[in-house]
Design goal:
alpha/beta; Ribosomal Protein S5, domain 2; four-stranded mixed β-sheet; three-stranded parallel β-sheet
Length: about 650
Amino acid sequence: MKLHLAVFAVVFLFALAPSVFAVTTIHAPAVDTNGRGVLTVLEANVVDGTGAVFIDIEPYISVDTQQSARTAAEIAAEEAQVDLKKYDVLFKILAKTQIVDGPSGGAGLALVAYGEFTKRNPRKDLAITGSIERDGSVGTVGGVYEKALSLKGTGTKLFLIPKGQVKYQGKNLALEAEKFGVQVVEVRNIKDVIKYAFTSEGSKVEAQVFEEQPLVIEKISNPAQLEPLKQIALEEIAALEKLSGDLEKEKDTEILRESVNKSIFESKYLLEQGYYYSAANLVFVAKISTESVKLKNVSQTEFMRMVQELENDAKTISFGPLTVENMEWSVGAKLRYYWASNKIKGIKKTIGITGPDELHGEYVAAKNWVAAAKRMNEIAKGIGGKAIANQNGVRQAAEELIQSLNQTQSFVLDSEIEQHYSGAVAAYGKADYATALFDALFAKAITEAEDKIESQIGSDFTKGLRSSRDLDSYEGSIWAQYYFIHSLYSVAQANRTNEFIFTVNAIKLQHLSNLLEENIPMMKEALLQEAPAAISFPGNSEGGGFKVQTKVTPQQPEVNTLLLIVLALLGVVLLALLIRGLNARRRMAGEPLSIAEKIEKLDELLMRGEISERNWEILHQRYFRQMRTEKSGKTKTKAKTARKTKS
C-alpha cells in the first residue's frame, strides 16, 4: 500500500512538472471537431511500479484512449522484452483544441513507451498516426489527409501512417506531402514503426511500397440447405444497385457511391465463391449507409411517423409454428425481429434528446432487420415440419444462460454483446425460449472470444483458427456453417488488409460456430422431447460457467508517519492538478460539446471520410447509450419530483 501511494505521488508530480523528468515525446496529428488537422504531442514516462497505466489529457475532453493506452503499453513492453508488471507508465496527450475521440494515437503511444523502456529517443522530426492492436499491428484511422496537412511548416520530415492509407479520394498522400518536405511512409506493425522511428533525423528512409491487393478467397462448395441465404443475398444486391443508382449526383455522395459500388462488386464475387452470409452482410452494411443519406432532409415529425409505421409493420409479422425442422430459420427470423424492436425502442427513448439526423442509421438498421425477419419467416413457413416444438424443453437452459450473462455484466460495456443479451431477454419475456437461448449463445460466444483476445498480446492470433477443411464439422447447424464460412472470409481479409478487426471477427465467428454446432442438435432434441437442455461450452474445462471473482484486500497495518507524509504530498499534488485543470478549461475556446453535438460531428466526419467506419460505429453506440442513460435519469428525477408533489 505504501509503495502504491508513493508511485501515485511520483506519477502526479510528473504530470505537474514534466520538465523535471526525462520523457519520450513525439508528434501525433489528430482531427478536431471541425474536421481540421491539428498537431498533438504524445509523452511517456516510465517509473518502477506494478504495471499500472495512467493517461493525462490536456484539455480533458473525454477522449477514449484508456484502452488504447493499456494496449500500447503492453505491446511496447512485449517488443522491448521487459516485464510491464515491474513498471508504471504515464502517458500525456497535449492538444490545442478539442479532438475527435478514438484510438488513432495508439501507435504513437506504443512508440514513446517503447522509447522509455529501451532508453532510446525517436527522431524529433517524426509524426505518426494509427491505432495499435493487440497483435502489434497498426490499424487504419480517419482523417489521414487532414493530419498530413497539419504537418506543413512544423519541421516534420517523416510521417508514419497505417498500411493502405497512402491513397485518399484519388490523391496520393505521399506525393502531396512531398510538396512541403514530408516523407509519408506506410507501416504494418510496431516493428515497422520502430524500424523507421530511430533512423537519423532529417534522413529519408528506405520504405516498402504496398499495393492494394484484390480479395482472393477459396471457393466453397455449399450443401443445398444453405441455398436460401444465397437467394436473399441476390435480392439484397439488386436492391442496393437500385439505391446506388438513385443517389443524387452530388459531390458529397461521390465517396459513398464509390464505396457502395465496391461493396456490390465484392458481394457478387463472394456469392460466386460460396460465401453467402458474407455477401449478405456486406450489402446490409452498405444499405444502412446509403438509405441513411436519403433521409437527410426528413423532419422530426416525419421521422417519428416513419418509426411508428416501422414498429406497426414489425408487429404484423405472423410467425409460423416452430418445428424441429424449421427451427433455425424460424429462430433466425425472430432474432432479427427482436433486434429491430429493441432498436425502435432505443430511437423512441432518444428522440427527445437529439434530432432525427443522428438516428437515421439506427432506423435503417431496424428497417432492414424487419425485412430480413419477414424473408426468413417465409423460408421457415416453406420448410414447415411435422415435429412441433415445445419450447419449455429449453426454458431452463435459456434462463440459466441469461442469468450467467447478467452476472458478468459484459453487455454493459460492449454494444455487440448488449444487442444479443437484450434480444435474449426480450425473447424470454415473450416465452420464446428457443430464440432466447440462441441469442444468449451469441452473447456468450462474443464474451468468451473477447476474453480470450484480451488475455493475449503480441502473439499470432490466427494460430488455432480452423480452415475450410473443417467445414464438415459444422453440418449439424446451418447457422454454424454460415458463420464458419464467414470466418474464413474474415481471415482472408485480415491477411489482405493487415486489419486486426478481421482477425477479431474470425475468432468470434469460429467460437460462435463451435457453440452452435454443439448446442443446436441438443436444442432440437430438447424441443422434441421436452427434456431439459444441458448447455455445452467447448473449450472450457469447467463447463463454461461464468465466475465473478471478488478480490478481498487484506487488512493493512496502522498508518505510520511515512504513509502520512505520502498522503499529504498526494493531497497537495491533487489540489495543484485541480487548479491546473480549471485553468486549462478556461483556455479552451467554447464549452465542451454535448453528446448530441458529438454524434452530429461524428456523422459529418464519416461522410467526409475523416473518421474510420470502425471508430464511428464504436463511438456512435457509446454516445447513444450515454444519451439513453441520461434521459432515463432525467425521467426518474421527474417521477420522484411528481410523487413528492402529490404527497
